[in-house]
């Protein structure tokens, strides 16, 4: 499993405004679009390409380490993504405990879907590219349920709004520009959950700029 959570440099502690630009969404699977594991997520990212998304994030001190406030951050980013593509989101709720940081659930009012994100493996490294750099990698299992019912992960995904099982790898690289600014490059790889040896079905590339708010 590795570390219990990603421990960020002390510079990250506090509140930040993020400006995110999804720069590329690459479909790497040879399968038809409707056969991919999470078409809804893919279409959301495609709609975000070329748009600027702004939202607040927080990093907190916990037991002597600086960690991301994952519950707050996912609510903030999901709401901002929805607004950026012209949708008014319902109230977004999350459950997350910094003492059990590997499990995060998120839901939106008006949607029957509950998403659970469980980190299965992670690593992080300070100064991999020299002073002021930081990066981490996380592997996650993502489970969607509707009214408590989990779909068979092997079924085809040609029906809209159905929950899915999938796997995700996130690679995030950071460069501390100044005490008030951090730049980041993020790659998200989405895999079919029922075939862990398969290549990613699609890859999302984003550039993020963090500006300190306090």
Automatic annotation (TrEMBL):
One protein family per Pfam: DUF6816
The DUF6816 domain, residue ranges: 1-201
Protein's name in the database: DUF6816 domain-containing protein
Source organism (scientific name): Rhodosorus marinus
């Amino acid at each position: 499993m590795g570390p219990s959570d990603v421990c960020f440099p002390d510079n990250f502690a506090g509140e930040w405004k993020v400006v995110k630009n999804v720069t590329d969404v690459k479909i790497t699977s040879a399968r038809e679009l409707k056969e991919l594991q999470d078409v809804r997520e893919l279409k959301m990212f495609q709609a975000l390409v070329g748009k600027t998304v702004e939202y607040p994030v927080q990093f907190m001190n916990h037991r002597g380490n600086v960690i991301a406030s994952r519950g707050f951050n996912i609510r903030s980013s999901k709401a901002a993504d929805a607004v950026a593509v012209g949708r008014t989101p319902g109230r977004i709720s999350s459950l997350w405990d910094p003492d059990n940081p590997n499990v995060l659930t998120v839901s939106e009012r008006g949607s029957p879907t509950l998403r659970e994100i469980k980190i299965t493996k992670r690593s992080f490294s300070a100064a991999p590219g020299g002073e002021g750099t930081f990066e981490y990698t996380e592997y996650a299992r993502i489970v969607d349920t509707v009214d408590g019912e989990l779909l068979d992960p092997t079924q085809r995904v040609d029906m809209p709004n159905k929950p899915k099982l999938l796997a995700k790898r996130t690679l995030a690289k950071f460069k501390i520009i100044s005490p008030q600014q951090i730049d980041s490059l993020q790659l998200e790889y989405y895999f079919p959950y029922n075939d862990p040896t398969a290549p990613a079905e699609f890859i999302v590339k984003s550039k993020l700029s963090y500006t300190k708010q306090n």
